[in-house]
Amino acid sequence: MAIDREKQAKDVIRLLSKEYPDAHCALDHTSAFELLIATILSAQCTDERVNIVTGDLFRKYGGPKDYLEVDEEELQEDIRSTGFFRNKAKNIRGACEKIVNEFGGEVPDNMEDLLTLPGVARKTANVVLGNAFGIASGVVVDTHVKRLSYRIGLTDEKTPEKIEKDLMELVPKKHWVMFSHWLIYHGRRVCNARKPDCENCVLNKICPKRGVE
Hints:
Blueprint: H1 5-19, H2 32-41, H3 47-60, H4 64-68, H5 72-79, H6 85-102, H7 111-114, H8 122-132, H9 143-151, H10 160-170, H11 176-189
C-alpha cells in the first residue's frame, strides 16, 4: 500500500519530537566558527572523536587567524586522529583565510557565502546555519538521516541532495533544523544500521520496514 508521505512525515515529527525532547547538535561548540571547524572535521569521523580532538584544538586556536599562524603540518598533527587530516587541514586553513580576508573575520550567516569556503558543502552549511545562527536553510542529511528517511518511507532517493529536496517538501520549515537531530538520535539509539530494535521503536506502527534488517 502506498504511503501518504505528508501524513507519514507529520506522524514521524509528532512521535520523535516527543521521544527526544532534548535532541541537539552532538558537536561541541561555543560559536559559529567552532561549529564550522568541528563540522569540517566530522567528515568520515564520529562526533565523539571530533569532540575529543576539538577539546584541545579550541583551546589552542581561538579564531581563524590562529589557524593561519602555524605550519599546515602542525595543524595536521593536531587533527590527525579524525582521519583525512591533510585534506581537512588544507580546507580549514583555506576557510580561515577566506573568513579573514573576505568576511571580516566572521563566519558568514548565509548559504551562498558559506558555500564559497573550502571544505563546505550544503550539509556543513546547513549544520552551521541551523545550529549556530538558528537559520533554517535546509535539512542536514548525514548517514543516519539518509538511512532512516528511506527506511521510514519519506524518500526513495539515494543522494543527499535529492533526499534533502524530498524532506524539505514534506517537513514544515519550522522543523527543518530539529528534524535531522530527531532522526540522528533515533538512528543511534534504536534504529541502528546493523540491527534495528523494531520491538522498542516508537515508529513501529507506522514504519514500512519494521522487522526488516
